[in-house]
C-alpha cells in the first residue's frame, strides 16, 4: 500500500533533491530565461513538504496532496506555482480521501499530475516545456499499467521517459513560456522546467520503485 | 550566473521582498496599507470607494517603483506583489481585489507573462466563486518581444506606467467596468517601448549575474527580467542608440505630424539620471524633427530590473481621451501628479 507516511517521505525527498539542484536549475534558466526557476522549484517543494508535515495524523492522501498544492502555490506564484499546484490537486482527486491506496494504483497519480499540468499550462508536446517530460512519463505509466507490468518496471519506464523527454527539449524551439520570446536562440539548450520535471519524476519513481522491492 | 557574487545591501536574500515591504510601509503608511491577512497585497488608503471599478495591478518584485509605487488615489487601488521576478500567487490578488471592491467590478492589469496569466486567471476563478466579476487587460508594449502582427504575444514593460495611469484615471473618474477596460486596451494599443541593456542584474537569493555581456556590447530589446532580447551590438554613443530605438518605435506608432505623445525615458536600475537626460535630449530632437508634440515627459527609474544597467524609451501616442487620463491627478507613494494650476500648498 501507498500510505500517508510514504507521501510525506517522498515530499521530503523532493524538497531535499530539488533544494540541492536549486543553483543548477537557476543556471539553466539563466541561459534562456530569467534565472529564477531553481528558486521557485526549491521554495515550492520545501513549502509543500512543510505543509504536509504539519497536517494532523488523521489527514488523508487527498488532504496531503491538496495541502502540498496550496503550500507550493502560495510560496511561489510564478509559472511553476499554478502548474504544480494544479498537478497536485488532480493527484489529490485521484488519490481520494483515503489513508492509503494500493501501490498498483500509484502510477495513476502521475497520470493525473500530467493532466493537471497540461490543462493549466495549455501547452502541447514539442513546445519546449515541462509537458515534454510529463506527457511521455504519463504515457509510460498508462502503458505499463495496461500491459500488467510490475510497479518497479513501470517506475523504471517513467524514469526513462522523463529523462529522454527532458533531453529532447534541447532540439526544440520554445513557443510557450518566457523563453518563447527567444525563438531560435533557445535551440540547443535544455528547458529548465523540463529538467526540473525530470528530477521530480526521478525522485518519485525511485522512491515508489524501491518501496515495492523492500 | 557566472563570476563572483554581486554586492548588495540586503540581510537575507530570501527575506528581501518582505523586508522591502516593511520599509515601504514605514515610509508611506499615510498612503498605503498592507492587507491584514495578505501581507503581499498592498492597498491604497485613499481611492477605493463604493461604485468605483477596483484596479488591481501586480507582478514580481524587483521592478520598483512598479508595481507598488503606483498604488494610490487616481491610479491603482491595490497591487499584488510576488517574489523577485515571479508572479504573485492568486491569493494576494484575490485579497487585494476583495479589499478594494466597490461593487463595480475588478480590473486586473499586469504585464503579459505566462506565470502572471496563470496566477491571475486562478484569482479570477476564485473571485467568480465569491460573485465578483474580474476582467483582465494585459500590457504588451515591448516591441522587441514579438513581431508587430503578434502584438498579443508581446511582453509588458515600462509602458505599464502610462497604461496603468490611464486606466487608473478612468476608474477614478467613476467610469464603468466596460469603459475602464476599453480605455485600458486603447492605452495599451497606443504605447510602445524598446530598451537596451548594458550590464546584468542579479537575484538577491543567488547574487549571480543573470546573463553575460561583454565589455563594449549592449543588448537591444532585453526583457526586464534579463530575458535575451533581439540582438547584441557594439555599444555606441547615446544619440546613436536613441536613434535606433526611436526609428523602431516611430515606425510602429505611425503618428502624423502634429500628433501628441507622452515620453518615458526609464532606467533599468543602474543607469543614472544624467544618462537618461542625455538620452531624452535626443528623444526630444527626434520628436521635433518628426513634427510630434511632447505633451508630457517622465524621466527616471520607473520600471526597473533590480540593478541592471540600461534604459528604455516609451512613447504613448496620445489622443484627447488618453491625454485627459494622463493629466488626471494621482497621489501614489512613488508618483504624484497635481492638477495643472493647483497651488503648491504642501
From TrEMBL, chain A:
<keyword id="KW-0808">Transferase</keyword>
<protein>
    <submittedName>
        <fullName>Dihydroxyacetone kinase, ADP-binding subunit</fullName>
    </submittedName>
</protein>
<dbReference type="InterPro" id="IPR004007">
    <property type="entry name" value="DhaL_dom"/>
</dbReference>
<dbReference type="Pfam" id="PF02734">
    <property type="entry name" value="Dak2"/>
</dbReference>
<keyword id="KW-0418">Kinase</keyword>
<dbReference type="InterPro" id="IPR050861">
    <property type="entry name" value="Dihydroxyacetone_Kinase"/>
</dbReference>
<dbReference type="InterPro" id="IPR012737">
    <property type="entry name" value="DhaK_L_YcgS"/>
</dbReference>
<feature type="domain" description="DhaL">
    <location>
        <begin position="5"/>
        <end position="206"/>
    </location>
</feature>
<dbReference type="GO" id="GO:0005829">
    <property type="term" value="C:cytosol"/>
</dbReference>
<dbReference type="InterPro" id="IPR036117">
    <property type="entry name" value="DhaL_dom_sf"/>
</dbReference>
<dbReference type="GO" id="GO:0004371">
    <property type="term" value="F:glycerone kinase activity"/>
</dbReference>
<dbReference type="GO" id="GO:0019563">
    <property type="term" value="P:glycerol catabolic process"/>
</dbReference>
